[in-house]
Amino acid sequence: MAYKDSLNLPQTDFKMKANLSERETNFLEKWEEENLYKKIMDSRKDSEQYLLHDGPPYANGDLHMGHALNKLLKDIVMRFKTLKGYKTPYIPGWDCHGLPIELKVTENVKEEDLTIEEFRKKCRNYAFKYVKKHVKEFKRYGVLGEWEKPYLTLHPNYEANVLEVVKTLAVNGFIYKQKKPVHWCPSCHTALAFSEVEYKEHQSPSIYVKFEDIEDKNTYFVIWTTTPWTIPANYAIALNPHFKYLKLKVNDEYWIVAEKLWEDMAKKIGIEDYEIVDTYTGDELAGKKCQHPLIENRKSKVVLADYVTAEEGTGCVHTAPGHGEDDFYTGLKHDLPIFAPVDDRGRYTEEFEELEGQKVLESNEDVVELLKNVKALINVNKVTHSYPHCERCKNPVIFRATEQWFIDVDKNDLRKNTLKSIKDVKWVPPTSENRITSMVAERPDWCISRQRSWGIPLPFFHCDDCGEDIIDNEKIFNRVIEFVKENGTDAWFVKNENEILGDLNNCPNCGSGNLVKSVNILDVWIDSGSSFKSVVEAWKGIKNKADMYLEGSDQHRGWFQSSILLSNAVNNQAPFNEVITHGFVVDANGKKMSKSIGNVTSPKEIIEKYGADSLRLWVASENYRDDVPVSDEIMKRVTEAYRRIRNTFRFILGNLYDFDPDKNRVKYKNMPELDRYMLYRLKNIVDKSNKAYENYNFHKIYHMVRNFCVKDLSGFYLDGAKSVLYPYREDSIERRSIQTVMWDILKALTKILSPILVYTTEEVWEYLNNIKKEEDSVHLSYWPEIEIETDKEFINRWDKVYEIRGTIQKLLEAKRENGEIGHALDSYVYLFSENDNELKMLQNLKEQIKRANVVSNVYIEKRDDMIQDEYYEDIYISVEKSPDKKCARCWEYSHKVGSFDDYEDLCERCREIVLEKEKK
Ligand SMILES: [Zn+2]
Ligand SMILES: [Zn+2]
Ligand SMILES: [Zn+2]
Fold first, then answer.
1. Ligand 1: distance of its center to the CA of 346 in Å?
2. Domain map of the chain by residue range?
């Protein structure tokens, strides 16, 4: 018999090479067939519910790394909660209405060529197409959920619930109509909410313009602006009441400019000769009237405003109430017309004849020319500044007063209550609480009407006879909601008022039958912001609150905010207990991914190349609170970590081929101390992982588990275990004890990693089930419990052995390097001490120190004339090449090798085992 055949060498079919892409799709099919999601829900049907409410991505375009990061973080959270025994339903959703889809649909066909019915059908089909596409990909990521029954904001039931929310707002007086300047996109010809606007660098003209004082001829108030096109809408000049204003003599004219700004202005326009002839406070100048330079019968009123600063300009602020927020309120205060001579497409109307029909954003030079002609222009220059752009079409937007519907965010203390409810929520990371607080504190009223077609209609009517707007009549509202539930919102646009309202088609004010329905639609942020009503309440029954919302940090402006405002207006509470925000995915240099730079990586590519488990491991490995980098380099590092983990699983499985936990399990108290210590370290990693999951610190789990595999297992425990597992008797207590520990490690690690490596842990679980039948799927299992008894003394002692081992390994490495030894088994370790207690302790641990270090023997002696290589506290340590012979079977050195007549090349232990095996 060859000695090799007498060893208990590992046996397993678990493959070293993962071949993830193929293996994963097999599991995916199996899960689909068995309906794993339903099985999990059933297994916890009586448990407490944990609801992570999905923020709906937009049903448009291909999925990018940001989508993958978001969905996978959610999946990891929910799978951990499932392990902890919660029932975690997950209803994914999609935002299906809005401009991006309209823009896509009108790429190939003109909106004007379609009926509204046809147009909306195209939009709907487009949304469905992308939902279908996304579902397939999200499933491939390994995300579990109600993929067959997601929530879509275009479902009639969902739409009806949104209208319920709007009804509550209307009935409680939150909604008002006003002509007010709003961000307006001339390209998309619609109003934009403040969350739909992004600021980018933009070049504008910068001009100084003179407005002549009507009573004091040849004296001019000098204004400065970067939007010359708004000059025709000027109705006032605002001064700061507390500033000092100079009256300057420049050439033959008199100019009025704030003192603080004059020096700067003079430099900019190159004026050196001037004379200060008088000074005033802003207060003293208020009430004056100036002649508008371009419009003959227009006066521009000099008014006071606190927002006039000394940061730039002249301290005399051009005020066009129809084209600016501050300007608007100044206009209201002084009873000025809210004038905006600009149409939907951003062109001057007949109200400014000189440039009628011209696009205002392209008219700056024309206005400058007009001002030059009437000698009102002092200076023109260019500035590059941060300017609002349309988030959808990326074009610059304008501020334009139109009739719009608003939610008054201060009505019924809504803003105050919302700010209060923010404090009841746990924000992760905590800094995001400040972000949402300041955004809610500073936000303007919410413009909720849009002049588009693809959305939920604003369910309002207007009476053609008495002019009344019918917005808060509950009966009419309920009728509309019923109508939408039955027919969907398409019908609103197709059917007439009689068909919608039936016998309620009468003006509640004057009784006339001439009600006209609104053709505006709702801001899509109302759609998604109402999901707490349409999804959460529907699922949770009584509890109308989700446990968690988890989205990118841009949602402080978007979904977190729209949701918390609407929920406060309707339910007087935040819609969530906890909110996690994550950063954006960037390239290795921290740059945003963009097609033009060519640094875009897609989740699809990563899955094809490395498998979904590698994508998931990448998500877990990064601290998502910051921006999250991805690159080939990073993916290589992640797959290397994956390989380490996989090899650990493989090694353990290979050594459990003859282990039956029911029969062979060694009781904790009968285990050698080294094995007990390993279980203690395992318990540590289980507890620390639990805490890290509870705190959503997934990157900590990644690092801990990786270190556990590399340091504790590969480096410390498993190497030494081989020197027992292979040569010892199969059923020796030493070997069975190690197998018991390995079994516990295998089960615990598989479970700990199951929220992250969903495919690989399931693969391991199948092998594990062959050893002992547990739950059908690891995803049906529960968080591991490690039961051990330890005391402080034990842990201290073993922590010490662990440390000493570090020193021994260093010495072994040095000997290996200078060629004195090959394998660690070639050496003996000598431990010396003068301390009797210490010696006794070491003596007891002798065999285990030997095993932990994989050396052939350990000698412990009391000596004071020590020649030591190294020391640890009061223990001196020396490593020597063994002077004895090597056993041909177990490779350990022993002075017994060569002392037996029958087996000259074996050690005592191996000789006995071989003799036994021969007898059989
Ligand atoms: Zn636009
Ligand atoms: Zn009426
Ligand atoms: Zn041997």
1. 11
2. 10-14+625-780, 163-190+401-425+442-528, 199-391, 806-883
Residues 188-193 have a mean pLDDT of: 86
Q: Is 904 annotated as a binding residue?
A: no
Structure tokens at 630: 């991805």
* 199-391 maps to CATH 3.90.740.10: yes
Residue 907 annotated as lining a ligand binding site: yes
Homologous superfamily (CATH) of 806-883 is Class I aminoacyl-tRNA synthetases (RS) (3.30.2320.20)
The 10 Å CB-count burial string (b at 16+, else e) for 374-394 is: eebbbebeeeeeebbbbbbee
Q: What tens digit of pLDDT does each residue of 603-629 get?
A: 999 999 999 999 999 999 999 999 999
Does domain 10-14+625-780 fall under CATH 3.30.559.30? My reply is no
- Do the annotations mark residue 709 as ligand-binding? no
How far is ligand 3, taken at its centre, from the CA of residue 856, in Å? 10
- Do you find a cis peptide bond into 429, omega within 30 degrees of 0? yes
Cα 179 to ligand 2 centroid, rounded to whole Å: 21
3 alpha carbon, closest ligand? 3
pLDDT tens per residue across span 135-170: 999 999 999 999 999 999 999 999 999 999 999 999
- Fold match, 10-14+625-780 / 806-883: no
pLDDT tens digits, 269-280: 888 889 999 999
Q: Tell me the average pLDDT across 326-333.
A: 87
Q: Which helix (H) or strand (E) holds 387?
A: strand 377-390
Question: Span 745-767, mean pLDDT?
Answer: 98
In angstroms, what is the span from residue 392 Cα to ligand 1's centroid? 5
171 vs 194: CA distance, rounded Å = 25
595 is in an annotated binding site: yes
User: From ligand 1's centre to the CA of 396, what distance in Å?
Assistant: 8
Give the burial class of 252: count Cβ atoms within 10 A of its Cβ; 0-12 exposed, 13-18 middle, 19 or more buried: exposed
Place 920 in a pLDDT band, splitting at 50, 70 and 90: confident
Task: Report whether pLDDT(602) > 90.
Answer: yes
Interval between CA 890 and ligand 3 midpoint (Å): 4
> Of 885, 900, 895, which Cα lies nearest the Cα of 859?
895
